[in-house]
Specification:
mainly alpha
Length: about 220
Amino acid sequence: MPTTSSGSARSIVTLHEPSNLAQQESSNQNFLGSCIGVIFVPAPTMRTIVRRRPIGWALIVIVVIAVAQGIAGAASSEPPEIDSLAFILGPAFTISGVAFFAAIFWLMGLFLGGRGSFRGLFAGLGFAYVPAVFNIPAIFVFSHSQFIGLPLTWVVGFGSFFWFLVLSVFAVQKNNNFSIGRAVTTVFIPMAVLLNLFIAFIVIIVWLLTNANPHDAGLS
Protein backbone atom coordinates (compact mmCIF):
# COMPACT_ATOMS: atom_id res chain seq x y z
CA MET A 1 0.00 0.00 0.00
CA PRO A 2 2.71 2.60 0.80
CA THR A 3 4.36 1.81 -2.50
CA THR A 4 1.09 2.41 -4.31
CA SER A 5 0.57 5.77 -2.55
CA SER A 6 4.11 6.85 -3.35
CA GLY A 7 3.65 5.93 -6.98
CA SER A 8 0.37 7.82 -7.14
CA ALA A 9 2.00 10.90 -5.64
CA ARG A 10 4.82 10.77 -8.19
CA SER A 11 2.31 10.38 -11.01
CA ILE A 12 0.35 13.42 -9.75
CA VAL A 13 3.51 15.55 -9.65
CA THR A 14 4.46 14.34 -13.12
CA LEU A 15 1.02 15.27 -14.44
CA HIS A 16 1.10 18.74 -12.88
CA GLU A 17 4.60 19.72 -14.03
CA PRO A 18 3.78 19.78 -17.79
CA SER A 19 0.54 21.60 -16.98
CA ASN A 20 2.43 24.35 -15.11
CA LEU A 21 4.96 24.66 -17.92
CA ALA A 22 2.17 24.91 -20.47
CA GLN A 23 0.47 27.63 -18.45
CA GLN A 24 3.73 29.60 -18.19
CA GLU A 25 4.37 29.32 -21.94
CA SER A 26 0.78 30.33 -22.66
CA SER A 27 1.16 33.33 -20.34
CA ASN A 28 4.32 34.46 -22.13
CA GLN A 29 2.67 34.04 -25.52
CA ASN A 30 -0.37 35.99 -24.35
CA PHE A 31 1.87 38.84 -23.17
CA LEU A 32 3.80 39.06 -26.44
CA GLY A 33 0.62 38.50 -28.40
CA SER A 34 -1.05 41.40 -26.63
CA CYS A 35 1.91 43.70 -27.35
CA ILE A 36 1.81 42.77 -31.03
CA GLY A 37 -1.98 42.72 -31.16
CA VAL A 38 -2.44 46.33 -30.05
CA ILE A 39 -0.39 47.34 -33.10
CA PHE A 40 -2.00 45.16 -35.77
CA VAL A 41 -5.44 44.20 -34.40
CA PRO A 42 -6.17 46.77 -31.68
CA ALA A 43 -9.94 46.35 -31.27
CA PRO A 44 -10.12 42.62 -30.42
CA THR A 45 -6.87 42.80 -28.47
CA MET A 46 -8.17 45.63 -26.30
CA ARG A 47 -11.38 43.70 -25.69
CA THR A 48 -9.35 40.83 -24.26
CA ILE A 49 -7.09 43.12 -22.21
CA VAL A 50 -9.86 45.11 -20.51
CA ARG A 51 -11.68 41.91 -19.63
CA ARG A 52 -8.65 40.10 -18.21
CA ARG A 53 -7.21 43.26 -16.56
CA PRO A 54 -3.53 42.19 -16.63
CA ILE A 55 -2.22 45.05 -14.45
CA GLY A 56 1.17 43.38 -14.01
CA TRP A 57 1.70 43.04 -17.75
CA ALA A 58 0.68 46.67 -18.29
CA LEU A 59 3.21 47.82 -15.70
CA ILE A 60 5.91 45.72 -17.37
CA VAL A 61 5.17 47.38 -20.72
CA ILE A 62 5.35 50.86 -19.22
CA VAL A 63 8.51 50.26 -17.17
CA VAL A 64 10.44 48.48 -19.92
CA ILE A 65 9.73 51.18 -22.52
CA ALA A 66 10.43 54.01 -20.06
CA VAL A 67 13.76 52.45 -19.05
CA ALA A 68 14.69 51.79 -22.69
CA GLN A 69 13.97 55.43 -23.54
CA GLY A 70 16.11 56.48 -20.59
CA ILE A 71 18.99 54.31 -21.80
CA ALA A 72 18.66 55.74 -25.30
CA GLY A 73 18.68 59.26 -23.92
CA ALA A 74 21.72 58.55 -21.73
CA ALA A 75 23.58 56.98 -24.66
CA SER A 76 22.87 60.06 -26.81
CA SER A 77 24.64 62.42 -24.38
CA GLU A 78 28.32 63.33 -24.78
CA PRO A 79 29.86 61.65 -22.92
CA PRO A 80 27.22 58.99 -22.18
CA GLU A 81 25.90 59.35 -18.63
CA ILE A 82 23.79 56.97 -16.59
CA ASP A 83 21.67 58.70 -13.96
CA SER A 84 20.23 56.10 -11.59
CA LEU A 85 17.68 58.60 -10.24
CA ALA A 86 16.36 59.21 -13.75
CA PHE A 87 15.87 55.48 -14.25
CA ILE A 88 13.67 55.46 -11.15
CA LEU A 89 11.76 58.68 -11.76
CA GLY A 90 11.22 58.02 -15.48
CA PRO A 91 9.08 54.88 -15.05
CA ALA A 92 7.41 56.39 -11.96
CA PHE A 93 6.31 59.50 -13.87
CA THR A 94 5.19 57.41 -16.84
CA ILE A 95 3.09 55.12 -14.66
CA SER A 96 1.61 58.19 -12.96
CA GLY A 97 0.80 59.70 -16.35
CA VAL A 98 -0.94 56.56 -17.58
CA ALA A 99 -2.88 56.34 -14.30
CA PHE A 100 -3.84 60.01 -14.65
CA PHE A 101 -5.26 59.53 -18.15
CA ALA A 102 -6.96 56.30 -17.09
CA ALA A 103 -8.66 58.11 -14.20
CA ILE A 104 -9.83 60.98 -16.42
CA PHE A 105 -11.16 58.67 -19.16
CA TRP A 106 -12.78 56.39 -16.58
CA LEU A 107 -14.58 59.29 -14.88
CA MET A 108 -15.65 60.71 -18.24
CA GLY A 109 -16.90 57.28 -19.23
CA LEU A 110 -18.98 57.05 -16.05
CA PHE A 111 -20.41 60.50 -16.80
CA LEU A 112 -21.46 59.29 -20.26
CA GLY A 113 -23.14 56.17 -18.89
CA GLY A 114 -20.30 53.66 -18.94
CA ARG A 115 -19.89 50.91 -16.35
CA GLY A 116 -16.34 49.79 -17.05
CA SER A 117 -13.70 49.18 -14.40
CA PHE A 118 -10.72 51.41 -13.69
CA ARG A 119 -8.43 48.36 -13.55
CA GLY A 120 -9.48 47.26 -17.01
CA LEU A 121 -8.97 50.74 -18.43
CA PHE A 122 -5.55 51.13 -16.78
CA ALA A 123 -4.46 47.79 -18.24
CA GLY A 124 -5.70 48.88 -21.66
CA LEU A 125 -3.87 52.22 -21.49
CA GLY A 126 -0.74 50.45 -20.30
CA PHE A 127 -0.70 48.41 -23.50
CA ALA A 128 -1.69 51.53 -25.46
CA TYR A 129 1.78 52.79 -24.49
CA VAL A 130 3.40 50.14 -26.72
CA PRO A 131 3.80 52.50 -29.75
CA ALA A 132 6.14 54.63 -27.62
CA VAL A 133 8.76 51.97 -28.36
CA PHE A 134 9.24 53.66 -31.74
CA ASN A 135 10.62 56.72 -29.93
CA ILE A 136 13.74 54.75 -29.02
CA PRO A 137 15.33 54.54 -32.52
CA ALA A 138 14.42 58.20 -33.10
CA ILE A 139 16.39 59.11 -29.97
CA PHE A 140 19.41 57.17 -31.26
CA VAL A 141 19.19 58.96 -34.61
CA PHE A 142 19.04 62.29 -32.79
CA SER A 143 22.24 61.40 -30.92
CA HIS A 144 24.13 61.00 -34.21
CA SER A 145 22.54 63.75 -36.30
CA GLN A 146 20.54 66.56 -34.73
CA PHE A 147 19.69 67.96 -38.15
CA ILE A 148 17.78 64.78 -39.03
CA GLY A 149 17.10 63.53 -35.52
CA LEU A 150 15.39 66.62 -34.11
CA PRO A 151 12.48 66.75 -36.59
CA LEU A 152 12.35 62.94 -36.59
CA THR A 153 12.04 62.89 -32.81
CA TRP A 154 9.23 65.44 -32.91
CA VAL A 155 7.35 63.60 -35.66
CA VAL A 156 7.74 60.16 -34.09
CA GLY A 157 6.90 61.52 -30.63
CA PHE A 158 3.73 63.19 -31.90
CA GLY A 159 2.82 60.09 -33.90
CA SER A 160 3.28 57.72 -30.96
CA PHE A 161 1.20 59.99 -28.70
CA PHE A 162 -1.59 60.20 -31.29
CA TRP A 163 -1.36 56.40 -31.64
CA PHE A 164 -1.70 56.17 -27.85
CA LEU A 165 -4.90 58.24 -28.05
CA VAL A 166 -6.33 56.03 -30.81
CA LEU A 167 -5.61 52.90 -28.78
CA SER A 168 -7.10 54.65 -25.76
CA VAL A 169 -10.33 55.07 -27.73
CA PHE A 170 -10.45 51.31 -28.32
CA ALA A 171 -9.70 50.67 -24.63
CA VAL A 172 -12.50 53.00 -23.54
CA GLN A 173 -14.89 51.51 -26.08
CA LYS A 174 -14.29 47.90 -25.03
CA ASN A 175 -14.15 48.71 -21.32
CA ASN A 176 -17.54 50.46 -21.35
CA ASN A 177 -19.25 48.72 -24.28
CA PHE A 178 -19.51 52.11 -25.95
CA SER A 179 -20.06 52.95 -29.58
CA ILE A 180 -16.95 54.25 -31.29
CA GLY A 181 -18.43 57.76 -31.34
CA ARG A 182 -19.04 57.81 -27.60
CA ALA A 183 -15.56 56.41 -26.98
CA VAL A 184 -14.03 59.18 -29.09
CA THR A 185 -16.03 61.74 -27.09
CA THR A 186 -14.83 60.19 -23.83
CA VAL A 187 -11.20 60.56 -24.85
CA PHE A 188 -11.07 63.80 -26.81
CA ILE A 189 -13.23 66.06 -24.61
CA PRO A 190 -10.82 65.73 -21.64
CA MET A 191 -7.85 66.04 -23.99
CA ALA A 192 -9.31 69.24 -25.49
CA VAL A 193 -9.85 70.67 -22.00
CA LEU A 194 -6.28 69.80 -20.96
CA LEU A 195 -4.91 71.32 -24.17
CA ASN A 196 -6.81 74.56 -23.63
CA LEU A 197 -5.62 74.73 -20.02
CA PHE A 198 -2.05 74.20 -21.18
CA ILE A 199 -2.34 76.92 -23.83
CA ALA A 200 -3.88 79.30 -21.28
CA PHE A 201 -1.03 78.53 -18.87
CA ILE A 202 1.58 79.28 -21.56
CA VAL A 203 -0.18 82.53 -22.50
CA ILE A 204 -0.25 83.64 -18.85
CA ILE A 205 3.43 82.83 -18.37
CA VAL A 206 4.40 84.72 -21.53
CA TRP A 207 2.27 87.70 -20.48
CA LEU A 208 3.86 87.76 -17.03
CA LEU A 209 7.36 87.60 -18.50
CA THR A 210 6.74 90.33 -21.05
CA ASN A 211 5.06 92.65 -18.53
CA ALA A 212 7.40 92.10 -15.62
CA ASN A 213 8.81 95.26 -14.01
CA PRO A 214 7.40 97.79 -16.53
CA HIS A 215 8.69 100.75 -14.45
CA ASP A 216 12.23 99.41 -14.50
CA ALA A 217 12.00 98.95 -18.25
CA GLY A 218 10.83 102.58 -18.64
CA LEU A 219 13.69 103.92 -16.52
CA SER A 220 16.26 102.04 -18.55
